[in-house]
Design goal:
- Helix 6 packs antiparallel against helix 7, helix 6 packs across helix 8 and helix 8 packs across helix 9.
- The mean pLDDT is about 90.
- Strand 1 and strand 2 form a beta hairpin.
- This protein is of the alpha+beta class.
- The N and C termini lie far apart (about 50 Å).
- The protein contains 10 helices and 4 strands.
- The strands form 2 sheets. Strands 1-2 form a two-stranded antiparallel sheet.
Length: about 190
């Protein structure tokens, strides 16, 4: 996937990546366009750089095509949610790819009930080095369970519990919004 050009500190060839090319000052639009056209940009790099590609002027149709052909079978739903947040114009392509990933997973038999806390604490980041929130992780889990579960009931709760949410994909994620305090006792 990568060509080996530059020599690292131990004299070993290092892979030619988008990071290397951009750090050398190459034009972002040119780098991403070439990598997409040559099918040399991995799925995670694609998802993490959508906003940067758009800002650099990479053609939307080229980006959409890259999303459609990306090998995302090992990508978790919250990665698509993050990409969607940064590049909402690719909602259809991202959602389609996200749902496609779930088709390859083992099915969860029986009934599953997922209670999603939507209190204010869920807006906290999952780590200091991430822009993902606790709610993003919960949204990803809800979307994933909806696709792989035989009988899944998703309920959002804070000081009260919402009725079963029946949506799929990003629409389900959109229904899960932070509001209010929390009372897990009444939810359970």
């Amino acid at each position: 996937e990568y060509s080996l050009k530059a020599k690292g500190p131990l004299g070993l060839a290092s892979p030619e990546t988008w990071e290397n090319r951009l750090s050398r000052g190459e034009d972002k639009k040119t780098v991403f366009t070439e990598l997409i056209q040559n099918n040399q940009l991995g799925a995670m790099a694609l998802l993490r750089n959508l906003r940067g590609m758009k800002e650099a002027g990479v053609q939307s149709s080229l980006i959409a095509k890259a999303i459609g052909s990306a090998r995302t079978d090992k990508v978790l739903p919250f990665r698509f949610l993050s990409a969607y947040r940064h590049a909402p114009e690719f909602r259809i392509e991202l959602e389609q790819k996200m749902l496609e990933c779930a088709k390859n997973l083992d099915k969860l038999e029986g009934q599953t009930v997922l209670l999603v806390d939507i209190s204010g604490s869920m807006s906290s980041q999952i780590s200091s080095k991430s822009d993902l929130t606790r709610l993003d992780a919960a949204r990803g889990l809800a979307i994933l369970l909806r696709e792989i579960g035989e009988d899944v009931k998703v309920h959002a709760f804070n000081t009260r519990t919402d009725a079963n949410l029946v949506q799929r994909g990003f629409e389900l994620g959109d229904k899960l919004q932070v509001r209010g305090g929390t009372d897990i006792g009444q939810a359970v």
